[in-house]
Design a protein that fits this description.
By secondary structure, this protein is mostly helical. It folds into two domains: 53 residues, Orthogonal Bundle (Arc Repressor Mutant, subunit A); 41 residues. Helices cover 69% and strands 0% of the residues. The protein is built from four helices and no strands. The N terminus is likely disordered.
């Protein structure tokens, strides 16, 4: 038998009140969104989790948009290669700058400037 609620909405029986977190973890949000995607009604999930239905709808929208974007990233080998090459280029440029600084400290700075660097 369910506990009766008083005028303030708090349980009046021996049942302890359910603690509602101030912030929901991504894992917990995903669990609730997956329930929606499996066909559970938004109202039922919202009531069960004590989350406003509009918030669940927003989590579902973000989940679906991000999931689609995540699939696109994995399916585009050209974009992955570009990101890999950009990272490598950045690493090489850092090494070049460090080498130039070291050469300048050792007194070879004027020669570097003459060569047009």
């Amino acid at each position: 038998m369910a506990a009766k609620k008083g005028s303030a909405g708090a349980p009046t029986g021996a049942e302890a009140p359910i603690e509602i977190p101030e912030r929901w973890s991504a894992v917990r949000k995903s669990e609730l969104v997956l329930r929606l995607l499996r066909g559970e009604a938004v109202d039922a999930v919202a009531r069960d989790a004590q989350v406003p239905a509009h918030e669940l709808e927003e989590w579902r929208r973000v989940f679906l948009a991000t999931g689609t974007h995540g699939l696109k990233k994995q399916g585009d080998p050209d974009a992955r290669e570009v990101r890999r090459l950009q990272a490598k280029l950045g690493e090489v440029m850092m090494r070049l700058e460090l080498a130039e600084d070291l050469l300048e400290k050792k007194g070879y700075g004027a020669e570097l400037r003459k060569r047009g660097r």
